[in-house]
Amino acid sequence: MSKTILSYILYAIAGFVTVIVIVNFDPGQGLEGVGLGINLITLLAAAASALYGIIGYFQLRKSAQDRNIEEDALDEYMYKKYTDNSTALMVTVVLSTVAMGSSIIYETSIYLTIASFAVLAAGLVFMSILPSILKTMYPERVDLPDPNDSNFAEKLYTASDEGEKLIMAEGLYKAFISMSSLLFIALVVLMIYSMATGNNQMLGMIMIAAILIYSNVTYALTIRNKG
Amino acid sequence: MKTRIKELRARDGLNQTQLARRAKISRQTVSLIEREDYVPSLLIAKRISIIFNEPIENIFIFTEEEL
Questions:
Q1: CB contact under 8 A, B28 and A79
Q2: Where are the alpha helices (DSSP H) in chain A?
Q3: Which chain B residues have a beta carbon less than 8 Å from that of A171?
């Protein structure tokens, strides 16, 4: 139910942003006219996502300590809740960074910059403490790494069993394929944007190209050298 | 591959989490195997066969075509 509501909110935000951009977009001016809109919308979306992630964190912590619920149902609930919270906090960090950047670039308001920074800080704090809940969720799993460990993500992958690794590999492969296509589309959009507005986006294009090449070469080398 | 894990769990009164704990795997892995979305490694299959006191071929059933 909460997932459906969240998806409706995200669709509504995406629709609202698209309409604002289309209505206010002036090819000669670039995104100057929609700076405040971008700032407000990304900040509101980041704050909503942060709220969802933070409330979810406390709900998860409470559930992890409650051992009166039927075990399988509790485990499934915690597993999904952890993933939802992790995603919400990641979205918070990304959107609040965009909000902070847009407030500085378009010089919208110092209050919006401070608010964006506060949401970003909250997102980062909860994203860093969320993994600590894993040990409460799975007290029997002594091989789980400490959240303060360097290479925590890598150690967590190593500590996962074969079924968990399969689930992660499927998710990562889907994400990798869609990310490669979307980054390529972004590259083309930036090129068209640069030509249409005269605003040079070469730095962004070079960075996207570098990320695309790096991620694809890393993937290719990983599977090539295992063969 | 067909699996009789759900039936054997019911027989022995084990939920997925309890089976997972005894087989030293996660509940997600038990769920994947039970839904027949994943063929477990020989090691996990052996642990499960010991828990249910059944030979592996009585728990994991392959069709002629698969073999």
A1: yes
A2: 2-24, 35-65, 71-105, 110-129, 134-137, 152-159, 162-197, 202-226
A3: none
Closest-CA residue of B relative to A143 is B24
Q: Does B47 contact A at CB distance below 8 Å?
A: no
**Reduced to 3 states, what is the DSSP secondary structure of residue A201?**
coil
CATH of domain B2-60: 1.10.260.40
Q: How far is A82 from chain B (nearest CA, A)?
A: 14
Residue B23: its pLDDT value, please?
94
B18 has a chain A CB within 8 A of its CB: yes
What pLDDT was estimated at residue A126? Answer: 95
Are residue A204 and residue A114 in the same domain, yes or no? no
The percent of residues above 70 in pLDDT, for chain A, comes to: 87
Query: Please, are residues B29 and A163 in contact by the beta-carbon 8 Å criterion?
Result: yes
Q: How many domains are there within chain A?
A: 2
User: Does residue A151 lie in a domain region?
Assistant: no
The average pLDDT across B36-60 equals: 94
Minimum mean pLDDT range among A10-19, A88-97, A161-170, A191-200: A10-19
pLDDT of residue A103: 92
In a domain, A220, yes or no: yes
Domain ranges, ordered by start, for chain B = 2-60
Assign A92 to helix, strand or coil.
Answer: helix
Whole-angstrom Cα distance, residue B16 to residue B59? 15
* pLDDT single digits (tens) A37-72: 888 999 999 999 999 999 999 999 888 877 677 888
Interface test with A, best of B9, B14, B16, B29 (most A CBs within 10 A): B29
**A143 at the B interface (CB within 8 A)?**
no
In a domain, A149, yes or no: no
